[in-house]
Design goal:
Blueprint: E1 3-8, H1 15-23, E2 28-31, H2 32-38, H3 45-54, H4 67-75, H5 78-102, E3 107-111, E4 126-131, H6 134-145, H7 149-158, H8 162-168, E5 171-174, H9 179-202
Parallel strand pairs: 1-3, 1-4, 2-3, 4-5
Amino acid sequence: MAFVIGLTGGIGSGKTTVANLFAAQRIDIIDADIVAREVVEPGSAGLQAIVERLGSDILLTDGSLNRSKLREAIFSDHQLKEWLNQLLHPMIREKMQQDIAAAQSPYCLLVVPLMVENNLQVMTNRLLVVDVDEETQIARTQQRDNVSAEQIRSILASQASREQRLAAADDVICNNGNGDNLEQQVARLHQEYLALSRQQNNTPQC
C-alpha cells in the first residue's frame, strides 16, 4: 500500500514548484488537474457522456473536448455544472486511486488544488500545505496569468481560507521566501516521508 502525501495550497502558492522539487527526488506525482484532463480524453467514457448530453458541437475538429466552450456552457447553467461534477468527480477519484496503487516510489504525492474544499485528504496519509500570505498570492497570480487583483480576490474567496487549510495540515511549507529556502524545506520533508513510508511498510499487516 502506497504511503500518500497530499499536497495542496491556494492559488499562486507555488504547488507546482513544490511538486517539481519532490519529482526531482524521484517521487511519483499524481496531479488532479492532469487526471481531470485524462478522464475526458478522446475515447473515454467521460467524453462520450458529455457528447451525449451536449452534442458533438462540444468537440474540437480533432475530436477532443472544447474546454472553453464547456466552461461557457456550465457558467450559465448551474444544473449542467452539477451534472458535470457528478459525472467527472467519481471518475477523477477512481483514476487517482489507480495511479496511487501503481506508484513505484517509496511514497507518492497527490496534488489537489481543492483538497480541503472536497475533503480529499481522506485519500492521504498526511497533508502538506504550501502556505503564503494573500498579497504574495495576488502578486504571483497577476504576474503569471495577467489578471486583475479583483479577479484573484474573487477566486480566493471561493477557495478554503488560509486558516482552514492550515488547520487541516500535518505539514506546512512556507513559500513567501526564496528558492533556496524552499529546496531546504522540501529536502527535510522528503527525508521525513521516506522514514514514515519505511515505518508503514515494516508494520505487520492483518
